[in-house]
Each structure stands twice: as C-alpha cells, then as structure tokens.
Amino acid sequence: MATPKNRIAALVPTVTSALAAIDGTTLAEGTYFLNVANRTAGQISVSLAVTEGGQPADADWFDFGVLVLPNNTHSRWPMPLRAGQVLWGRASSAGLAVQCFALERK
Predict the structure, then answer these.
(1) Alpha carbons 12 and 90: distance in angstroms, whole number
(2) CA–CA gap between residue 89 and residue 102 (Å, rounded)
(3) Are 20 and 27 in contact (CB under 8 A)?
(4) How far is residue 60 from each of residues 11, 18, 38, 48, measured CA to CA in Å?
(5) CATH 2.40.50.100 fits 2-105, yes or no
(6) Which of 11, 45, 74, 100 has the fewest CB atoms below 10 angstroms from its CB?
(7) Per-residue pLDDT tens for 18-31?
(8) What is the pLDDT of residues 15-63, one digit of tens each?
(9) Measured between alpha carbons, how far is residue 23 from residues 5, 39, 40, 57 in Å?
(10) Cβ atoms within 10 A of the Cβ of 5, count?
(11) Per-residue confidence at 1, pLDDT binned at 50, 70, 90?
(12) Considering only CA atoms, which of 65, 78, 82 is closest in space to residue 20?
C-alpha cells in the first residue's frame, strides 16, 4: 500500500534551512514533488540544494536565486532523493512555503 509522505515548511528569510532529511525512517528514498509557494504580493527569490548531509557548498545548489512571482509557485518534478541526502532551502525574504511530497511503498 502507498503511504503519502510530505514535509511542509515556511522558509526563514536569508537563512539556509534543512527542509527534508532522507533518513529511511521519517522519509524514505524515492522520487519527490517539490513545490515552493509565494504567499505575498511581491516577488521573492528562492535557492534550493541537495547535499549528502552537511551544509550546502556552491556546487550543491540546483536552483539559485530563482524568482517566484507574487501569489505563484515554483515546482520541481521529478526530484529523486536517496538515503542520507538532505534538501535545503533559502529565501530572500519572508513569504515562501515549501512542500515536499512523495508516495512511499510499504
């Protein structure tokens, strides 16, 4: 049976934050759908990275300074993540929410 798994977080402005850790217990490795929603009337930039556990280095950012238009979204699919990887995010200002969804087979 497939079980929905997700992580939802509001990004703290200018702070690099861990959004999801693929630890095999809370979240399993698999293919995820990533959605960034701008809840404001102004554009906000977002940066997203995947690492093998530690803070992102320059080469870990797969989206950097992408503008999310007012009251709009930025999405990534497919987003393959394996055990030990961590998804990171950073926003230029307040107002972005990140959703990371997957179906896990049990």
Answers:
(1) 7
(2) 18
(3) yes
(4) 18, 13, 23, 8
(5) no
(6) 45
(7) 988 888 777 788 88
(8) 999 988 888 777 788 888 999 999 999 999 999 999 998 999 999 999 9
(9) 13, 30, 33, 21
(10) 16
(11) very low
(12) 82
What are 45's two structure tokens? 């930039």
Return the HEC string of the chain.
CEEEEEEEEECCECCCEEEEECCCCCCCCEEEEEEEEECCCCCEEEEEEEECCCCCCHHHEEEEEEEECCCCEEEEEEEEECCCCEEEEEECCCCEEEEEEEEEEC
The token duo for 34 is 């990533």
Locate 69 and state its tokens. 């238009």
Q: Supply 15's token pair.
A: 């702070």
Query: Could you tell me which residues come within 8 angstroms of residue 64 by beta carbon, excluding any fewer than 6 positions away?
Result: 47
Using an 8 Å Cβ cutoff, are 16 and 87 in contact?
no
